[in-house]
């Protein structure tokens, strides 16, 4: 298995002597949210699919927000974004909720309840993997 | 209802979640890794007082965040259907994350190691209490004594209504079989519920 996805965890390199005295290169996770830990938007599950409007690409967004609207041009789950950004789920939730509030991101509508035929389809597709 | 019973399409995919649970070291990571198409780990940063003094070796004053690694897998079933697998954290002190993980799940798989059967009790209690469809996967470890499934059922204290399946978490086909068994159980539970409701409305 490859490296552990810590937020901001960078492998120490020989070309950055500035880090020599730093034994803890891990960025405190909620630094990315200015210390906020509660998302502005409830109901974001780990598997919630998000989609960014194409127009969000030209919005003045930076860093993680920018990456999220790029990645979510196709539907991406909160967990997928967490893996792609190597940022903890709780932090992604806060940033995603901000982007929803700002209108750059929307939650992909899901059926209120899965139909029997859909569950059968899941079963058959898993069997065929 | 708001007419949300549409079928999924490539433009509007549906995400389905299955929770993989069981004691610490029971094989959840292996199970998810055997079938996932991505690196099976994600982290959760939780603000908690509980971890202070347990894993805080950094002497940073005021550190109140702990990072928990969760098993995470994704399986693209077709262009409109995504299956996500999430492992519950094995240590009891992260039990507060469970509600969040389990909310909206199709069902759950509780993995059992017959050498430490009691480790699976909290998970079984949780899913019984929350009425979430679940099955038990008896993970076969090399060197562990093999038991008849009915012996395992007795030791677990679960009724005949809970399916038990043998599995090898390292083996993709075996993992697939467990996932298929869970979807069957979800369908059974759904039929039972519909029958109960029909019987109830006859009164």
From TrEMBL, chain A:
Disordered: annotated segments: 1-27
UniProt-listed PANTHER family: DUF742 DOMAIN-CONTAINING PROTEIN
Record InterPro entries: DUF742
Protein name: Uncharacterized protein DUF742
Top-rank taxon: Bacteria
UniProtKB/TrEMBL annotation, chain B:
GO molecular function: GTP binding; hydrolase activity
Pfam family name, one: ATP_bind_1
Database matches in InterPro entries: Gliding_Motility_GTPase, Gpn, P-loop_NTPase
CDD domains: Ras_like_GTPase
SUPFAM superfamilies named in the record: P-loop containing nucleoside triphosphate hydrolases
Keywords: GTP-binding, Hydrolase, Nucleotide-binding
Gene3D superfamilies: P-loop containing nucleotide triphosphate hydrolases
PANTHER family from the UniProt entry: ATP/GTP-BINDING PROTEIN-RELATED, GLIDING MOTILITY PROTEIN MGLA
Family listed: Belongs to the GPN-loop GTPase family.
Protein name, entry field: Signal recognition particle receptor subunit beta
């Amino acid at each position: 298995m490859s490296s552990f996805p810590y937020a901001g965890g960078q492998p120490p390199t020989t070309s950055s002597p500035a880090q020599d005295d730093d034994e803890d290169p891990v960025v405190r996770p909620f630094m990315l949210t200015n210390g906020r830990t509660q998302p502005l938007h409830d109901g974001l599950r780990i598997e919630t699919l998000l989609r960014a409007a194409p127009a969000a690409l030209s919005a003045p967004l930076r860093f993680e927000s920018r990456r999220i609207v790029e990645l979510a041009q196709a539907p991406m789950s909160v967990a997928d974004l967490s893996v792609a950004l190597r940022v903890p789920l709780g932090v992604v939730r806060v940033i995603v909720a901000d982007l929803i509030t700002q209108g750059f991101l929307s939650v992909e509508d899901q059926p209120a309840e899965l139909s029997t035929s859909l569950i059968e389809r899941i079963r058959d597709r898993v069997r065929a993997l | 209802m708001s007419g949300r019973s549409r079928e999924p399409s490539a433009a509007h995919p549906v995400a389905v979640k299955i929770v993989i649970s069981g004691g610490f070291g029971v094989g959840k990571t292996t199970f998810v890794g055997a079938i996932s198409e991505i690196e099976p780990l994600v982290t959760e940063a939780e603000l908690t007082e509980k971890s202070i003094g347990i894993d805080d070796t950094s002497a940073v004053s005021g550190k109140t965040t702990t990072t928990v690694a969760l098993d995470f897998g994704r399986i693209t079933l077709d262009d409109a259907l995504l299956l996500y697998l999430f492992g519950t954290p094995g240590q009891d002190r992260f039990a507060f994350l469970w509600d969040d993980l389990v909310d909206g799940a199709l069902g759950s798989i509780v993995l059992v190691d017959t050498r430490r059967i009691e480790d699976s009790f909290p998970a079984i209690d949780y899913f019984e209490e929350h009425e979430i469809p679940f099955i038990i996967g008896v993970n076969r470890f090399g060197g562990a004594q093999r038991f008849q499934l009915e012996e395992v059922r007795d030791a677990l204290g679960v009724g005949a209504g809970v399916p038990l399946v043998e599995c090898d978490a390292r083996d993709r086909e075996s993992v697939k079989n467990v996932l298929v068994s869970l979807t069957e159980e979800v369908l059974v539970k759904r039929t039972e519920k519909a029958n109960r409701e029909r019987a109830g409305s006859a009164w």
